[in-house]
Amino acid sequence: MLTIVGGPMFSGKTTWIIDYVTKLTPGSFVLFKPNIDTRFGKDVCVTHHGKSFPAVNLNTKKIDFSQLKEELTTIVIDELNFFSPDALIPLIKEQQKKGRNIIGAGLLYDYKRQPFGATLPLSKTADSFIRLYARCDRCGKDAGHSYRKVDVKNQFLLGAKETYGACCDDCWEILSSNV
Ligand SMILES: [Zn+2]
User: Fold this and answer.
1) Domain range spanning residue 110?
2) Where does 12-164 have alpha helices with state H?
3) Centroid of ligand 1 to alpha carbon of 166 (angstroms)
4) Residues 6+ apart with CB under 8 A from 102
5) What is the pTM of this model?
6) Does residue 170 belong to any structural domain of this protein?
7) Phi, psi (5° rounding) for residue 172?
């Protein structure tokens, strides 16, 4: 089973992941996060509300599942957007063939509304796709996108409320042009 959770910044993806793993049998799963996301510490997944769960760093440049214990039935990965689809998807397929459940969460789109990393491609092959929404900073409607509050062009820019906001399709252009 492949389950993908996708949404913009502040839509509760990491909260969803932490709630999910909290219900699993200890020792039956591993929770990975990309090694480049060091916003809140190296070995932990943390939500924007401060909820946290211990996580294992996964190297985005050299993804390696070969050290996983045989008895693991579930692999959970947060921030799928930091992984390249070409590198991650074949490895996920391999793990599915071994009978493992894969649950992943991430941003579907970057701040320019372009597909971001492995989240969107994986959502298309998922058995279950859960789309989360935030609240639009401008009009309060369901927000499916993120916008950047600072003038930095690099796609990989870690940040929280001071750097990013969430918005609906209609408000994206207006909020993005405020930078
Ligand atoms: Zn709006």
Assistant:
1) 2-132
2) 13-22, 85-97, 119-125
3) 9
4) 1, 2, 3, 74, 75, 76, 77, 92, 95, 96
5) 0.92
6) no
7) -55, -50
**111: CA distance to ligand 1 center in Å?**
15
Residue 26 lies in a domain: yes
How far, rounded to the nearest angstrom, does the alpha carbon of residue 101 sit from its chain's CA centroid? 17
Q: Read off the CATH number of the domain in which 13 is found.
A: 3.40.50.300
Q: Considering only CA atoms, which of 111, 106, 56, 117 is closest in space to residue 83?
A: 117
Q: Ligand 1 center to residue 171 CA distance, Å?
A: 4
Q: How far is the CA of 88 from the centre of ligand 1 (A)?
A: 33
Across the chain, which has 179 residues, the per-10-residue mean pLDDT values are 97 96 96 83 81 92 93 97 96 96 97 96 98 98 95 78 92 89
Q: Is residue 59 part of a domain?
A: yes
